[in-house]
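Blinded run. Sample ID left blank on purpose so nobody reads anything into the name before looking at the predicted structure. Input follows.
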Amino acid sequence: MSPVAGQLSSVLNKTARLIELCNALQEENDLLKLENESVKVALDGSKIKTKDLEEKLRVLKLAKSIEGTSEKSLDIKQKINEFVREIDKCVVLLKK
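Blinded prediction complete.
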């Protein structure tokens, strides 16, 4: 075999190996993109849940503060209903 043919064969073998490595890296990249997307979806879900829990905590704190006042129970119920409606509006906005 001539030296040129040997070098050509070596270049072809190395090129084939590089193509295999490139394909393997592309597959790994695709898998990482999918994993990244699923983590983003989970993060978005967690953010929504956190907002919801923060709103519930705010309502509970408000209910505790109302509990100590001498307002009539009807007024308290009306205020709670207003807060629930406000929470429902916020949840609808979060789902958009």
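Unblinding after everyone has recorded impressions. The chain has two helices and no strands.
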